[in-house]
Amino acid sequence: MIQRRPASFELHPDTVVDTLGEEPEGGGTLAFEAPEPAPEHPGEPALPERALLLEEFFNGRLWAEGVVCDRRGRVRRRLRIDMQALWEGDWGRLQESYVFDDGERQQRTWSLRRFPEHEGVRRYEATAADVVGTAHGRAQGHEMRWSYRMDLPVGRFRVRLRMDDRMYLVGDGLAVNRIEIRKFGLRVGSLLLSCGRSASPADLELAPPPRAR
Length: 213
Hints:
Strand order of the largest sheet: 1-2-3-4-5-6-7-8-9-10
Strand content: over 45%
Helix content: under 10%
Number of strands: 10
Low-confidence stretches: 1-10, 15-24, 26-30, 206-213
Order of helices and strands: HEEEEEEEEEE
CATH topology: Lipocalin
Largest sheet: 10 strands, antiparallel, barrel
CATH class: Mainly Beta
Shape: globular
Number of domains: 1
């Protein structure tokens, strides 16, 4: 029988982190780093610019596959995520079901909010049960970045870690996701994913959100 645990990007117990204290509040304003322009090659067609719109890409059924790495970049776990997302106006909900290579299963539900675009920058917010406060996201062009803190199990402890979450749209219905996991500014692990779409919103019915306790 598979044991269910609270949803998390769980690190391997061998990962070395400082479990004394929490990361200081007020980590500063999230600054969006624009990608450098690609060099020009005369005679070659330019790649079309695709905008990563969260409300379009994360809308319907999706999948993701990838690896969890320790602080030295060594692969510790492999996983698959099946996702379901729906939007109503500026509000969305994303349900994630994790399956790890050791048979462990996890669940997470995100509540999403979209804000009006300003000067080419699209801004979002999100909350989840194990996220501390609110996750803040900014997107421009094909790139999106999230910054948030999570309380995650590491061995016998629960540790508050900062997540630097970046996503890049690389094709129609395909994106790559890199999450750097940090404690006191030091990288203690990472999560690398490829994400794709598998069904339209018309084929989807989400379960009701869990009741607040």
